[in-house]
Amino acid sequence: MAFLQLKKASLAFGDRDILVDADLTLSAERRVALAGTNGSGKTTLLRLLAGVVPPDSGQLLRSPSLRVAYLPQSGIVAGQGSVYEDAERAFDRQRVLELEAQLLTEQAAEAPPEQALLLLTKSHELQELLEADGWYRKRELVEQTLRGLGFSSEELERPVATLSGGWQMRVALARCL
Q: How far is CA 167 from CA 41, 43, 133, 175, in A?
Protein backbone atom coordinates (compact mmCIF):
# COMPACT_ATOMS: atom_id res chain seq x y z
CA MET A 1 0.00 0.00 0.00
CA ALA A 2 1.40 3.39 -1.01
CA PHE A 3 1.87 5.92 1.76
CA LEU A 4 3.20 8.66 -0.51
CA GLN A 5 2.70 9.35 -4.22
CA LEU A 6 3.75 11.99 -6.71
CA LYS A 7 1.59 12.14 -9.82
CA LYS A 8 2.74 14.13 -12.85
CA ALA A 9 4.60 16.47 -10.48
CA SER A 10 6.77 19.27 -11.76
CA LEU A 11 9.02 21.47 -9.69
CA ALA A 12 11.50 24.14 -10.69
CA PHE A 13 14.09 25.85 -8.55
CA GLY A 14 14.64 29.23 -10.14
CA ASP A 15 14.97 28.64 -13.87
CA ARG A 16 16.10 25.05 -13.37
CA ASP A 17 13.67 22.13 -13.66
CA ILE A 18 14.08 19.67 -10.79
CA LEU A 19 11.11 17.46 -11.73
CA VAL A 20 9.08 17.33 -14.93
CA ASP A 21 5.87 15.25 -14.92
CA ALA A 22 7.41 12.90 -12.34
CA ASP A 23 5.61 9.90 -10.89
CA LEU A 24 6.76 8.27 -7.66
CA THR A 25 5.17 5.74 -5.34
CA LEU A 26 6.62 4.96 -1.92
CA SER A 27 5.27 2.00 0.00
CA ALA A 28 6.20 0.31 3.25
CA GLU A 29 7.28 -2.86 1.44
CA ARG A 30 10.06 -1.11 -0.49
CA ARG A 31 13.36 0.49 0.39
CA VAL A 32 14.58 3.40 -1.68
CA ALA A 33 17.68 5.55 -1.79
CA LEU A 34 18.12 9.07 -3.07
CA ALA A 35 21.49 9.69 -4.66
CA GLY A 36 22.87 12.40 -6.89
CA THR A 37 25.60 14.93 -7.37
CA ASN A 38 25.84 18.15 -5.38
CA GLY A 39 23.22 20.61 -6.53
CA SER A 40 21.14 18.05 -8.42
CA GLY A 41 17.99 18.72 -6.37
CA LYS A 42 18.01 15.98 -3.71
CA THR A 43 17.20 18.39 -0.87
CA THR A 44 14.56 20.16 -2.94
CA LEU A 45 12.91 16.82 -3.70
CA LEU A 46 12.93 15.88 -0.02
CA ARG A 47 11.40 19.25 0.87
CA LEU A 48 8.67 18.54 -1.69
CA LEU A 49 7.98 15.06 -0.29
CA ALA A 50 7.87 16.47 3.26
CA GLY A 51 5.32 19.07 2.20
CA VAL A 52 7.65 21.99 2.90
CA VAL A 53 7.30 23.19 -0.71
CA PRO A 54 4.36 22.38 -3.01
CA PRO A 55 4.83 21.05 -6.54
CA ASP A 56 4.50 23.66 -9.29
CA SER A 57 2.05 21.27 -10.97
CA GLY A 58 0.79 17.75 -10.39
CA GLN A 59 -0.15 16.14 -7.11
CA LEU A 60 1.50 15.06 -3.90
CA LEU A 61 -0.68 12.45 -2.18
CA ARG A 62 0.10 11.27 1.34
CA SER A 63 -1.62 8.73 3.53
CA PRO A 64 -3.60 10.52 6.27
CA SER A 65 -1.71 8.53 8.91
CA LEU A 66 1.71 9.49 7.49
CA ARG A 67 3.75 11.83 9.65
CA VAL A 68 6.74 13.47 8.07
CA ALA A 69 9.46 15.43 9.82
CA TYR A 70 11.94 17.57 7.95
CA LEU A 71 15.21 18.68 9.51
CA PRO A 72 16.97 21.33 7.44
CA GLN A 73 20.72 21.09 6.98
CA SER A 74 21.25 24.55 8.45
CA GLY A 75 19.37 27.47 9.95
CA ILE A 76 18.19 25.71 13.11
CA VAL A 77 16.87 28.36 15.51
CA ALA A 78 17.51 27.67 19.18
CA GLY A 79 14.41 27.35 21.31
CA GLN A 80 13.74 29.54 24.32
CA GLY A 81 13.40 26.75 26.87
CA SER A 82 15.39 23.85 28.15
CA VAL A 83 16.66 20.94 26.09
CA TYR A 84 13.75 18.83 27.37
CA GLU A 85 11.13 21.53 26.72
CA ASP A 86 12.36 22.12 23.19
CA ALA A 87 12.40 18.41 22.36
CA GLU A 88 8.93 17.97 23.88
CA ARG A 89 7.56 20.33 21.22
CA ALA A 90 7.41 17.18 19.09
CA PHE A 91 4.14 16.53 20.93
CA ASP A 92 2.48 19.89 20.10
CA ARG A 93 -0.08 18.21 17.82
CA GLN A 94 -1.01 15.77 20.56
CA ARG A 95 -1.36 18.63 23.06
CA VAL A 96 -4.03 20.13 20.80
CA LEU A 97 -5.77 16.75 20.48
CA GLU A 98 -5.85 16.39 24.27
CA LEU A 99 -7.48 19.81 24.64
CA GLU A 100 -10.02 18.85 21.98
CA ALA A 101 -10.81 15.59 23.81
CA GLN A 102 -11.28 17.49 27.08
CA LEU A 103 -13.57 20.01 25.39
CA LEU A 104 -15.68 17.22 23.88
CA THR A 105 -16.03 15.59 27.30
CA GLU A 106 -17.11 18.90 28.84
CA GLN A 107 -19.63 19.46 26.04
CA ALA A 108 -21.00 15.94 26.55
CA ALA A 109 -21.80 16.78 30.18
CA GLU A 110 -24.18 19.53 28.99
CA ALA A 111 -25.59 17.77 25.92
CA PRO A 112 -28.73 15.64 25.47
CA PRO A 113 -28.04 11.88 25.83
CA GLU A 114 -27.78 11.03 22.11
CA GLN A 115 -25.45 13.91 21.36
CA ALA A 116 -23.47 13.23 24.55
CA LEU A 117 -22.80 9.68 23.38
CA LEU A 118 -21.44 10.96 20.05
CA LEU A 119 -19.25 13.53 21.79
CA LEU A 120 -17.90 10.97 24.25
CA THR A 121 -17.21 8.52 21.43
CA LYS A 122 -15.20 11.16 19.56
CA SER A 123 -13.35 12.07 22.78
CA HIS A 124 -12.52 8.40 23.35
CA GLU A 125 -11.23 8.06 19.77
CA LEU A 126 -8.94 11.05 20.32
CA GLN A 127 -7.68 9.55 23.58
CA GLU A 128 -6.88 6.30 21.75
CA LEU A 129 -4.91 8.29 19.17
CA LEU A 130 -3.04 10.00 21.99
CA GLU A 131 -2.23 6.64 23.54
CA ALA A 132 -0.96 5.28 20.22
CA ASP A 133 1.20 8.40 19.74
CA GLY A 134 2.82 7.98 23.15
CA TRP A 135 1.26 11.12 24.65
CA TYR A 136 0.79 9.57 28.06
CA ARG A 137 4.44 8.42 28.06
CA LYS A 138 5.89 11.55 26.50
CA ARG A 139 8.33 12.36 29.32
CA GLU A 140 9.84 8.88 29.13
CA LEU A 141 9.98 8.94 25.31
CA VAL A 142 11.54 12.41 25.10
CA GLU A 143 14.15 11.62 27.76
CA GLN A 144 14.98 8.29 26.13
CA THR A 145 15.42 9.94 22.73
CA LEU A 146 17.60 12.72 24.13
CA ARG A 147 19.78 10.23 26.02
CA GLY A 148 20.13 8.21 22.81
CA LEU A 149 21.45 11.35 21.12
CA GLY A 150 24.10 11.82 23.80
CA PHE A 151 22.46 14.13 26.35
CA SER A 152 22.99 13.36 30.03
CA SER A 153 20.13 13.66 32.53
CA GLU A 154 21.65 16.89 33.88
CA GLU A 155 21.75 18.47 30.42
CA LEU A 156 18.00 18.08 29.91
CA GLU A 157 17.36 21.25 31.94
CA ARG A 158 20.10 23.26 30.23
CA PRO A 159 18.84 26.16 28.06
CA VAL A 160 18.99 25.22 24.38
CA ALA A 161 20.34 28.66 23.51
CA THR A 162 23.55 27.87 25.44
CA LEU A 163 24.33 24.81 23.29
CA SER A 164 26.66 24.72 20.30
CA GLY A 165 25.12 24.52 16.83
CA GLY A 166 25.80 20.78 16.66
CA TRP A 167 24.04 20.08 19.96
CA GLN A 168 21.13 22.33 18.95
CA MET A 169 20.86 20.21 15.80
CA ARG A 170 20.61 17.12 18.02
CA VAL A 171 17.69 18.69 19.92
CA ALA A 172 15.99 19.43 16.59
CA LEU A 173 16.64 15.83 15.53
CA ALA A 174 15.05 14.61 18.78
CA ARG A 175 11.87 16.50 17.85
CA CYS A 176 11.83 14.69 14.50
CA LEU A 177 12.37 11.28 16.04
A: 27, 22, 26, 13
